[in-house]
Amino acid sequence: MGLIKKKNELDVNVRLKMLIYGQPGMGKTTLALSAPKPLLVDFDGGINRVDYEFIKDTVQAEKYEDILDLLNNEDLSDYETLVIDTGGKLLDAMAEYIIKQYPKMAKRNGSLTLEGFGQRKREFSDLLKLIDTKKKNVIFVAHRQTEKNGDVTRYVPLFGGSNYDSLATELDLIGYLVADDRKRTITFDPTSESEGKNTCNMPSVVELPNLKDKDGNVVGVNNFLEEKVFKAYRARLIERSTEGEAYTKLMEQIDADIETIDCIEGANNYKDNVKTGYDHIGNSLAVARQKFLARMSKLGFVYNKDKKEYELPSEQPAPAEAPANEQKQEEKPANENKPADEPQSGKQTKGAKAGK
Questions:
Q1: Which of 81, 174, 225, 335 is geometrically suited to a Cys-Cys bond with 34, CB 3.0 to 4.6 A?
Q2: What is the helix, strand, coil percentage profile of the chain, to 5?
Q3: pLDDT, tens only, 279-309
Q4: How far from 162 is each of 27, 99, 156, 158, CA to CA, in Å?
Q5: Does pTM top 0.85 for this prediction?
Q6: DSSP string, 109-163
Q7: So what's the pLDDT on residue 164?
Q8: Which of the 8 DSSP states describes residue 220?
Q9: E strand or H helix at 89
């Protein structure tokens, strides 16, 4: 099998890589646990802040090796999503792991050197690849930190520091969680106040349901991400894949129909029916018209703007031949342009005879 794939042959990855961040007490971990069949990998004691009704299976990780051991040696068949809380603590543990392996990548204060940050970026990418081989979604939970630039204040994830941008490129969704009294919203689009990433075509801002009433009674099911994000994302990918297959078949039919055009009547019939004769998808109408025009050019058919139809190119009349008697009059004798003293062919002058 070749390396080049048609659009309908591309592998569709329906697994999500997501980051949720916000200030403490916003319910970030609980929201992350609303993903499909979650397993919490707790680096920061986040499980202790989740209401008992919403607690899920948990790995209480102390070092980066714990998550590697989990992914390489544990049976994860009961889970679809890894929730890593917090992403910042995971990266700290990852840095310690790197320094153990490469002591020269540590500064005297214990932080990573520039080379060490590069190694952490590679380790982070490798972790995501490992999670993907296990066919799991992954959600990172992060606290927020404040950045000020003059009078502008922005709230950004506590996730990688100056290395944040390079890590964020690996993710599909980044959502900022905020609350106003009992109303909570998550913002996926980047704004002047917060980070965001929205490759899944989610609404810019989504209101979250309340799971408990004012008296603390459970009034909702914790399945927001599964129902409103993951299912919508998967449905869109499947729809796009199905549409791609239909588009490919449609273009094959258009190519076959245009190739059969070999006369003026066929050209004009196709011109009149190209818009309504197919169930067009995306830009298929524009592509069909381009292909049709190329066929007309190849056949030499010309479009008459006044009649609004194609016709054969008009033939230019051949130049009329001159009458035979005129041709004879114009013919010149063979010796017409010869000098007067030039001998005629086959004859000798008197001087020539005298020289004998």
A1: 225
A2: 40, 20, 40
A3: 998 889 999 999 999 999 999 999 999 999 9
A4: 26, 18, 11, 10
A5: no
A6: TS-B-HHHHHHHHHHHHHHHHHHHHTT-EEEEEEEEEEEEETTEEEEEESSSGGG
A7: 87
A8: S
A9: helix 87-101
What is the length of the chain? 356
Q: Interior CA angle at 200 toward 25 and 134, to 5°?
A: 80
DSSP 8-state secondary structure symbol assigned to residue 108: T
Distance from C-alpha of 66 to C-alpha of 71, rounded to nearest angstrom:
9
Q: Are 310 and 271 a contacting pair, CB within 8 Å?
A: yes
Contact criterion met (CB below 8 Å) for 47 and 55: yes
The SS3 call for residue 252 is: helix
Q: What is the DSSP letter of 204?
A: S
Both tokens of 231, joined, read 């299912």
The number of CA neighbours under 13 Å toward the Cβ of 134 is 23
Q: What burial letters (b/e) apply to 218-231, b meaning 16+ CB within 10 Å?
A: eeeebebbbebbbe
Is the previous residue joined to 86 through a cis bond, with omega within 30 degrees of 0? yes
CB 188 within 8 A of CB 175: yes
